[in-house]
Amino acid sequence: MQDKFTWARGLADDIKGCPGHLRYYSDIEAYRDCCAIIDELAPAADEVQLTKRGYGAFLGTALDPILRDRDIDGVIITGVMSECCVEDTARQAYQLHYPAVVINDAVATYDPRATATMLEVVEKNFGWVAGTRAVIDWLKAAQGSACFRINASKPTARRLR
């Protein structure tokens, strides 16, 4: 059992990641720090950046108060290590009463079976699962509306009167 937890000793205390570990990315034909944000996803100057302290995005971060301060009452989740980070973020969102949608074609891990299982667990227990196109369509339909409401069957955009 010790082997499963040995990697944790090498993590940076402040971020629980492996900064400085270079990985080769064939799509850009270059090495990058494996904790670095890729150029295409680089945050704009006015976007919030958080340092995750574990698998989920809420525990040990300021995400919950930031969302509440901005009157954001739901989350859309994408990411890697789907059976750990994505699923834990969806669980934490549920426990904090945020409706969560996991985008099924925007999550991944080293084992596609683990992703499939995670998606089933989220759908059955504490969130919704949808594809990128469907979520983009829902968001476009919600633009300018007073509310983006999620119901038990699927996320829908509705204007409140």
Molecular structure report:
- By secondary structure, the chain is α/β, with parallel strands linked by helices.
- The chain contains 5 helices and 7 strands.
- The longest helix has 14 residues, at 82-95.
Number of helical runs? 5
- N- and C-termini, Cα separation: 57 Å
Rg over alpha carbons = 17 Å
The percent of residues in helical segments reads: 25-40%
Main sheet makeup: 3 strands, parallel
- Apparent shape: globular
Which helices and strands, and how do they pair?
Blueprint: H1 2-6, E1 22-25, E2 30-33, H2 63-69, E3 75-80, H3 82-95, E4 100-108, H4 112-125, E5 128-130, H5 132-142, E6 147-150, E7 155-158
Parallel strand pairs: 3-4, 4-5
Antiparallel strand pairs: 1-2, 6-7
Helix pairs in contact: 3-4
